[in-house]
Amino acid sequence: MREEEIETAIKVVVVGNGAVGKSSMIQRYCKGIFTKDYKKTIGVDFLERQIEVNGEEVRLMLWDTAGQEEFDAITKAYYRGAQACVLAFSTVDRDSFEAIESWKKKVEDEVGEIGMVIVQNKIDLIDDAVVESEEAEALAHRLRLRFYRTSVKDNLNVDEVFRYLTEKYLMQINCEVEEELDDKPKISIGKGLLDTETNNHVKDTTEKTKDKANGKLLKKKHKNRANDDPDTIRLEPSKRRTRGKKSVLQVAKCVIL
């Protein structure tokens, strides 16, 4: 497969209580349409869209999950394999806001930590808001997640939500590739880099040199230990005067253990 044919695919799950606008958001993003009629999602729905980010082709697979508890057993299975997640609540639904942390936990229990974003939908109904702006911002700050206010009806910030998740995921996989390259064994001598086989040889030689040095050091330690042991009888060199020039006659030192 040629490089230009390689495509990045990202699975994004959109979660939150029922009637917060999850289906409408995906419809708006993928098909560019909006309908006022509310239809409860049964289980899951799926749409996809092809976009280009920083010159790279990306296929977004968007999974719209039912928000009602009776569908939990079904929807949890569809979280698996997700690389990004939208946590949505409605401006006019207090319960949906208070359930955000619960939805975050449900997703992370299945897939671990992935890129997430909090979305306050139906911002066009701000006059009827039951969630203060400061509350929503404080929640996002505490959970350390990006926060967007959207209006699916007016097509406000919908594209920005999914573009952010895409860029975040691409940055993550690029960092993982760089870490894998950095983890490869390398040793620098002068200006060049040795291959793995040479590295192993150099490593073995270095270890042998260290072993020899350690052996000498060990002998020296044993020697010093004998000198410091109070139970050891030492015979020190003796000195005697001569009629001629003063000189010191040393008797070989011996240690009796």
Topology (SSEs and partners):
Layout: E1 8-15, H1 22-31, E2 44-53, E3 56-65, H2 72-79, E4 84-90, H3 94-98, H4 100-111, E5 115-121, H5 133-143, E6 146-149, H6 158-182, E7 187-189, E8 192-194, H7 196-228, E9 233-235, E10 254-256
Parallel strand pairs: 1-3, 1-4, 4-5, 5-6
Antiparallel strand pairs: 2-3, 7-8, 9-10
Instruction: Using the 3D structure, state the CATH architecture of the largest domain.
Output: 3-Layer(aba) Sandwich
Strand order of the largest sheet: 2-3-1-4-5-6
Query: Structurally, how many domains make up the residues?
Result: 2
How would you name the oligomeric state of the polypeptide chains in this document?
A: single chain
Low-pLDDT parts are 187-198, 216-227, 229-257
Order of helices and strands: EHEEHEHHEHEHEEHEE
Q: Mind telling me the CATH superfamily name of the largest domain? A: P-loop containing nucleotide triphosphate hydrolases
Report Rg: 36 Å
The global form is: globular
- Please report the distance between the alpha carbons of the first and last residues: 77 Å
The chain-level structural class is: alpha/beta
Proportion of β residues? 15-25%
**Number of E-type strands:** 10
Largest sheet: 6 strands, mixed
Helical residue percent band: 40-55%
CATH topology of the largest domain: Rossmann fold
How would you state the average pLDDT, rounded?
Answer: 76
CATH class of the largest domain: Alpha Beta
Contiguous helical run count:
7
What features would you describe in this structure?
- It contains seven helices and ten strands.
- The protein is an alpha/beta fold.
- It folds into two domains: 3-182, P-loop containing nucleotide triphosphate hydrolases (Rossmann fold, 3-Layer(aba) Sandwich), CATH 3.40.50; 187-211 and 230-256, no CATH class.
- The strands form three sheets. It has a six-stranded mixed beta sheet, sandwiched between helices. A two-stranded antiparallel ribbon has the order 7-8. A two-stranded antiparallel ribbon has the order 9-10.
- The longest helix has 33 residues, at 196-228.
- It starts with 7 loop residues before the first strand and ends with a strand.
